[in-house]
């Protein structure tokens, strides 16, 4: 049984059974945006999750920021984001990917990843997603801190400590005490 449906040519499907594209986009757990990359990063469209992510209603955001992302990007990140978009697109590519901080309505700061592609008909238009990566960044920082603590402990232990490969017993790493012993 073939349950694939060609939404373009299948005339048997009633229009009411086909979900509205914007409705589908609103189910995504990421911000979906149509951005004008040549302006102050203003957007023509943002889904409901984008507004939930930053804590503003659509009307509030439009009135306060005229649909520009720039005022909500952390000050240290705005120039780097613009440069990254410009660099990535000027190298002949049609996609962007960049992590930056965004300021929410309550003043808290979240890390987000912007990924997108240029329109095939309008090079200045980006179709993009904005994903909250704050938890991922926090976990990464925690792991980095723990690794630093472990390395400090590892290098300050009396005597030699080595890590060996279980497959061929190659030395993967060794502390300073090991190298003093040999």
Walk me through the structure:
The structure is a single chain. This protein is an alpha+beta fold. The protein has six helices and seven strands, in the order αββαααβββαββα. The chain has helices at residues 21-27, 48-54, 58-65, 75-90, 134-156, 176-181, and strands spanning 31-36, 42-46, 95-103, 109-118, 125-132, 162-164, 171-174. The strands form two sheets. A five-stranded antiparallel sheet has the order 2-1-5-4-3, sandwiched between helices. A hairpin with a 5-residue loop joins strand 1 (31-36) and strand 2 (42-46). It starts with 20 loop residues before the first helix and ends with a helix.
SS strand fraction? 15-25%
C-alpha end-to-end distance: 69 Å
Rg from Cα: 24 Å
- What spatial form do the alpha-carbon principal axes imply? elongated
Taking all residues together, what is the mean pLDDT? Answer: 84
| Biggest sheet statistics | 5 strands, antiparallel
Across the major sheet, the strand order is 2-1-5-4-3
- The helix content is 25-40%
**Tally of helical segments:** 6
Structural class, please? alpha+beta
| Number of extended strands | 7
Given as residue ranges, the uncertain stretches (5+ residues, pLDDT < 50) are: 1-14
Question: How do the SSEs run, as a string of H and E?
Answer: HEEHHHEEEHEEH
């Amino acid at each position: 049984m073939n349950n694939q449906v060609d939404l373009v040519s299948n005339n048997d499907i009633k229009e009411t059974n086909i979900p509205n594209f914007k409705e589908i986009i609103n189910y995504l757990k990421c911000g979906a945006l149509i951005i004008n990359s040549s302006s102050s990063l203003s957007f023509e469209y943002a889904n409901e999750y984008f507004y939930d992510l930053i804590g503003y209603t659509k009307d509030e955001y439009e009135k306060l920021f005229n649909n520009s992302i720039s005022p909500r990007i952390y000050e240290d990140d705005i120039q780097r984001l613009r440069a990254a978009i410009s660099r990535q697109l000027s190298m002949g590519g049609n996609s962007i990917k960049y992590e930056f901080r965004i300021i929410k309505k309550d003043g808290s700061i979240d890390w987000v990843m912007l990924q997108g592609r240029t329109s095939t008909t309008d090079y200045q238009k980006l179709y993009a997603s904005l994903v909250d990566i704050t938890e991922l960044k926090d976990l990464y920082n925690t792991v980095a801190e723990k690794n630093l603590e472990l390395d400090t402990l590892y290098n300050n232990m009396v005597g030699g400590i080595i890590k060996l490969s279980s497959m061929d017993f190659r030395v993967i790493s060794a502390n300073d005490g090991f190298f003093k012993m040999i």
